[in-house]
Amino acid sequence: MAELDIGQHCQVEHCRRRDFLPFVCDDCSGIFCLEHRSRESHGCPEVTVINERLKTDQHTSYPCSFKDCAERELVAVICPHCEKNFCLRHRHQSDHECEKLEIPKPRMAATQKLVKDIIDSKTGETASKRRKGAKNSETAAKVALMKLKMHADGDKSLPQIFVKYFQKMADPWQECMDYAVTLARRAGEVVCEALKNEMNVMLKSSPVDLVTATDQKVEKMLISSIKEKYPSHSFIGEESVAAGEKSILTNNPTWIIDPIDGTTNFVHRFPFVAVSIGFAVNKKIEFGVVYSCVEDKMYTTRKGKGMFCNGQKLQVLQQEGGFILQVLVQLILCTHILFF
Fold first, then answer.
1. What is the reported pTM?
2. What DSSP designation does 161 have?
3. Which sequence ranges form a coiled-coil region, renumbered to this chain (predicted)?
């Protein structure tokens, strides 16, 4: 009887066993029986090549260029500035003392100096007031009452016990504050519209100090509108100072403008952005306006009159003195929005 031609012989020389269901090696494509199906059992030549490749790769590493560092990495970590290789621990410019590391300039140095000058002037004024004695205050009050009676209008035939005197104080800056509120709302509309569109982002003094075309557009709009109404007033704008203009606070009525307070939030389309406007006379803040345009919240504060949000008075710890001025300065001149 003829032998059936079923299956194949194992290719291992000392085996040659016929297997009806032979195995094919995935690497060398040889035919093997059940006993010699693994790469090791039939001495697969491809295993040697793979092992040699692994041994070669194990010796490839990249030393760190930082002084006194003996670390090595399996992949190259190249600094894009000095183009040297470093380990993961020294990959940043500050960590490996990069020779091309740029020291960031102090952010808004001119504004910080302005804040310090205002606070120092207020501190000196408070100290001088404390030196006045109670007797001097009483005398001044009596003199003021006498002058008030001399110039008072009314029926002079009435007995003095039925007469009350009221002093009408002129407020020369209320009109300016009302105009600042109007401008803040107008600028807020521009900011809200810009949040819906693509924006062109530029850098000022450092990679985190951003400015957009909207910042410049809003500041230009605010200053041109104020100049048209109050041509004799002065201005200090954040973007103008960043562009090189001098920040000089004089006794002249001065508008202090941050067109988009929170530019980083604005660039990332976070809703916490505001238009901030301050107003100083004789180097002292008179009022401040901060409009959180996305929330439609108008924060206003006036010297000696407290703080308000959309016309509702806010509760603060003190109603007079340095606390109000300190919060006001932070409100108008700092780089972040003051949340109430």
1. 0.44
2. G
3. none
260 assigned to a ligand binding site = yes
Judge if 25 and 71 occupy the same domain: no
Give the total number of structural domains in the chain. Answer: 3
229 & 328 share domain: yes
The answer to whether position 138 is within a domain reads no
State which amino acid sits at residue 207. Answer: P
Would you say residue 168 has pLDDT above 80?
A: no
261 is in an annotated binding site: yes
Answer yes or no: do 247 and 320 share one domain.
yes
Q: Tell me if 186 sits within 8 A of 238, measured CB to CB.
A: no
Residue 258 inside a domain? The answer is yes
38: domain CATH number?
A: 4.10.1110.10
Domain that holds residue 36: 1-47
Please give the backbone phi and psi of residue 234, each rounded to the nearest 5 degrees, phi first: -105, 170
Instruction: Check: CB of residue 56 under 8 Å from CB of residue 35.
Output: no
pLDDT by residue (tens digit) across 40-93? 888 888 776 555 555 555 557 889 999 889 898 888 899 998 989 999 999 998
Which of 294, 248, 265 shows the shortest CA–CA distance to 111?
A: 248
Is 103 labelled a binding residue?
no
| Same-domain status, 73 and 196 | no
HSE (CB half, 13 Å, CA atoms) of 187?
A: 34
Three-state secondary structure readout of 106-125? CCCHHHHHHHHHHHHHHHHH
Query: Does the annotation place 238 within a ligand binding site?
Result: yes
- Residues whose CB falls within 8 Å of the CB of residue 162, separated by 6 or more in sequence, listed in order: none
Q: What is the DSSP letter of 74?
A: S
